[in-house]
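Tokenise the fold.
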Amino acid sequence: MRGAVIITFIPKQDSDLTQVKNYRPISLLNNDYKLFASILAKRMKKLLQEVIHKDQAGFLPGRQMKDNIRNIINILEYLTARNEKQAMLIFVGAEKAFDNISWEFMLKKLEAMHVRQEFFNGIKAIYTEQRAKLFVNNVTTEDIKITKGTRQGCPLSPLFILVLEIFLRSIRKNKLIRGVTVAHNEYKVKAFADDLVLAVEELSRSVKEVLEEIEQFGQVAGFILNKKKTKIIAKNMEQGLIETMQQQIGIEVVKKVKYLGIWLTPKNIDLFQNNYTPMWNGIKRDLEVWGRMKLSFWGRISTIKMSMLPKMLFLFQTIPIIKGAVIFKEWQRTISRYTWQGKKPRIQFANRCERKRTWVPAESITDEYLVEEFHSLFPDKPKPLARFWEEEFGPTDDEGFSCLCLCGFSCLRRGGSGGVRGRRIRLGSSTSGKRSERMGGWF
């Protein structure tokens, strides 16, 4: 692929910025390249869905990082209940995982999969010759030749998980590596891009085999283990055994590790304190800063939606912990105080939380849509929809019957029968009888 791209550097959070290794290189690519690479990536994802094991959750549709996190949390909970099982969770840290992948190894993997020649030629054109310029302190360097790695910021970066799957498959097939066994299921590995977690029992043999597998894979694929970044959480192990294992393998056993944005410890009881509490303390600091700014009402609403809400939703979806209603009331009061600048709210909280009324475009109102809304409102009414409407709310013409939008259903949900407001929406020119027949049947 001829023509140099620009590489800029983003510092890693909470790291020593005097070290080059603590910067993440992001490639700035032109639109022509992105369009071509996106087409290849879209076609490739259909193939990856079939060949990538469900243990990998990154880059593929329908797979989310919360699945991996919940799996690890469930393993920790299981091991807490089975205190006779000694186990280790190894959080693997790789040395520049994306930047060190061997092109030759990656292309041979694609060849072994017997992809179409045209597709293979497109990938090969990109990963045969690359040049880049570094952009540092507003200065652009001369061209640098690139000979390995997948670009972070490139649509084709999912090729990394294709290469990684070879290593994970080897781990799964290795009988000398004993995963955590739950009933008849064995859990060995979970991965989200280059964030790997290995769960093992029979520690001496299993850990040794894992390190050998990583070394062998690194020799052919360029995957390099960083023992300083790699951490271990031990479960049901005595301190003497933990210290012995640390000396043998050279990897630190810790009480707390951050995985995919979530702080994990050997005891799940600490999840709330280690995740929700710091998140809320950070939000309160932000609210204090924003409260001193001259923001409009809608500006304050936007700051909540764009900055605060995503942080909370991430934790709710990833580690949904029920801690009682007291903490939520405290959050509600704090957010309300910021929204209304310490004054009495002009809108009651119950009204603010009411279901949003939405006008539905005429082309979206179909018979199936009306039936679905009817079911949600009256699940215990086994009558044809048209007849039920006339018996409950009186006779109406075809146009009146057609005028069922979300606002109207919202009125019914509140127990009102005052009809539907707004312009009427006609679904077709059929008569009331025909519509009754079409919407008939027993729902």
The chain has 17 helices and 14 strands. The chain has two domains: 5-266, 267-356. Residues 396-443 have pLDDT under 50 and may be disordered. The first strand starts at residue 4 and ends at 11.
